[in-house]
Amino acid sequence: MAEVSEVLMSVLSTVRVPRPGDRVHKDECAFSFASPESEGGLYVCMNSFLGFGSQFVERHHARTGQKAYLHITRTRKKEDDNNSASGDPPKKKPTRLAIGMEGGFDVEQDQYEEDVKVVLFPDRQEVTSEDLSTMPDVARERVSLSMAGLLAADSVSHALQVQQWDGEVRQESKHAAELKQLDNGLKIPPSGWKCEVCELQENLWMNLTDGKVMCGRRYFDGSGGNNHALLHFQQTGYPLAVKLGTITPDGADVYSYDEDDMVLDSKLAEHLSHFGIDMMTMEKTERTMTELEIAVNQRVGEWEVIQESGATLRPLWGPGLTGMKNLGNSCYLNSVMQVLFTIPDFQEKSVPVSVTLCVAKLGYGLLSGEYSKPAPDPGDDPNGDQVGIAPRMFKALVGRGHPEFSTNRQQDAQEFLLHFINMVERNCRSGPNPSEAFRFLVEERIVCQQSQKAKYTQRVDYIVQLPVPMDQATNTEELQEAERLREEAEASGSPPPPAPRAQIPFSVCLDALSEPETLTDFWSSAVQGKTTATKTTRFASFPDYLVIQIKKFTFGLDWVPKKLDVSIDVPDTLDLSALRGIGQQPGEELLPEVAPPPLMTPDVEVKGILGSHGNEEDDSLYSPLLSPVLDDSTVSQLCEMGFPLEACRKAVYYTGNTGIDAAMNWVMGHMDDPDFSAPLVLPGCSSAPGTTPTESISEEHLATIVSMGFSRDQATRALRATSNILERAVDWIFSHLDDLESMEVSEGGRSEAGSEASRDPPPGPRVRDGQGTRFCSFPTPLQSVLEHTYVTTHCSVAPSLFFFYNFIS
């Protein structure tokens, strides 16, 4: 022990005590998915606070000379059925629909026996807490403080993401304060309830206006009720109902049919008393809606609720067959990354800077097979037969700074795929780029119907979004008959029959993509006015892997988003040869490259191209003095739907103030544009309205942005585009990184054009193009992952429905 004491004293100067703000990596190895639960545990450097698995700690010691590491190992406790043998309390079941909160789902709720000691390299001498008591005071105090600080600190993987998500936050109902209650003399007994229509005795709701007791909604699996409480609301308009059996002195489940949500009723005791119910004497006899939702969420990962229900599955292990643990609503991330790492570009290449390590580490974890092994104890993983990997650091990195992906809320898989591709694009400008496997060119051909002249444009895309033509369903007669029966049931007050699902052939979705689109307010440079045009969309190139998304969300007549309940039979192979664009055709004339005139205020007198304030030598005053007339009511309507103000202004401007429908169509067609939220720039203007001249730009703001690593010219452009407001300029510059990298702005604010070479357009993105046009769905290895690896079965949870097709040359 004396020798150990000497070694410890010699390295004491390198042992640090974590301070607030220090990043402590104690959950996961920096280079692998080793954790304290892994074989060999985790070694946390007591100087840098980085974590290393047993296979990397020696390498870190050799390269840095650090000797003191906190060795953390965890072993899962064994639980008896009644927990009587161990004396430990049983694992808590969730009582709240939340993540990372008291009573909610705990993504790391397993109970572990934890062993902690200090290990001194290179001889791996161990120092336990008991051993420290025999050490000199200075060593004992410093090492003990370091150990306690490391154990108490939040790990980086938790600190970088919002851990809490509360699905039970309810708002006070707008009807609660002034709820109308009928004086009909009705008194509700404390028990023995049944539906007044069908006599069902469970899932019963009492309307708080007239006291009617009726059954609740029918659930997706046919259980629940017969919708009589909902039908009663539709007939009477009485909005609030309380679930009988959930009433206790602490409250009850109250639902607002008008607000379509669970709500709070601050006057619940008074409303119940009106019908003879004493809230203070009631006891709970039925599961609350929260408890029912929790039960469903706990079953999400069980075999009986996935598509392989009833089938006997053979567990697989080995390279490429590694599962990913759900970190709490992270199924969207797991599904996307499992698929991406079946693609050679992502298997063979990595991306630079900080993204390199996390992506390469995730790829190794999924492909090496090191973490796809039978669990040492089958009871170690109740959801499967392998331990798998938990992508905590990866999720924290890719979600850092993002308002959605940094949280534990449910997310859309397609949106995450695009977010990850954008991240890869930003970090791969000077090297191999694996996202090129998805990149393709889209050719848009617009033909002016009056002059028959055409215009061709190309844009880069990564996903094909297919519309769902509901009018092309193959079971139209069945749908019409179901609608007729539903209306009859609604009129008679009887429960409606189960609604059939629309059957849509995949081919008609593909046809809808290729159908010409009519543009009714197209400004034609050939006729110098608005006319009708047709637009067709084709592939200018074919990618190695084609991603197809079925657009199952649409807008109703009231502009409220709704999800389409459809069934689409996706084929194994596609022949897209008919969708190949061929460019300008022989004898076809192109539309002149002339910008449309700006919309102007009625009181502006226009005197030709020079304007009333210009002269023959200088017409630079013309454009800034002309302001567009925009329909404020249309702009406001679009803003109320949640779209950015500048996007709404552009939508109204480019559709010529022709109304909300045309503006909304423009918004939906340009949401993916990189400058969608950028300020409106009028044709002929060098900057957006309200931008600031160079001489008035704040030098202090310029210095602040330049200190962040951007050039003075880039900072100038950002401040000009945002009216010299620093906060907006910083947001703008980070959302226009692609544009800034290829532009050079002079002090005068215009692109340098001192030579002919500078006028050449910048080279476009690298795009692959296959010779053939037949695609097939992913081969057997991916299917094996989807069928046999537990975590990826959560793919159905992600809201987006999309498919990957592999190119055959």
From TrEMBL:
Keywords: Hydrolase, Metal-binding, Protease, Repeat, Thiol protease, Ubl conjugation pathway, Zinc, Zinc-finger. The keyword Repeat applies. Residues 629-670, 696-736 form the UBA domain. Substrate binds at residues 205, 217-220, 255, 257, 260. Residues 171-279 form the UBP-type domain. GO terms for biological process: protein deubiquitination; proteolysis. One of its GO terms (molecular function) is zinc ion binding. It catalyses: Thiol-dependent hydrolysis of ester, thioester, amide, peptide and isopeptide bonds formed by the C-terminal Gly of ubiquitin (a 76-residue protein attached to proteins as an intracellular targeting signal). Residues 322-761 form the USP domain. Zn(2+) binds at residues 195, 198, 215, 228. Residues 71-97, 477-501, 744-773 are annotated as: Disordered. Transmembrane segments: none annotated. Its EC number is 3.4.19.12. Coiled coil: none annotated. It comes from the Eukaryota. Belongs to the peptidase C19 family. PANTHER family: UBIQUITIN CARBOXYL-TERMINAL HYDROLASE, UBIQUITIN CARBOXYL-TERMINAL HYDROLASE 14. This is Ubiquitin carboxyl-terminal hydrolase. It comes from Astyanax mexicanus (Blind cave fish). The lineage of its organism: Eukaryota, Metazoa, Chordata, Craniata, Vertebrata.
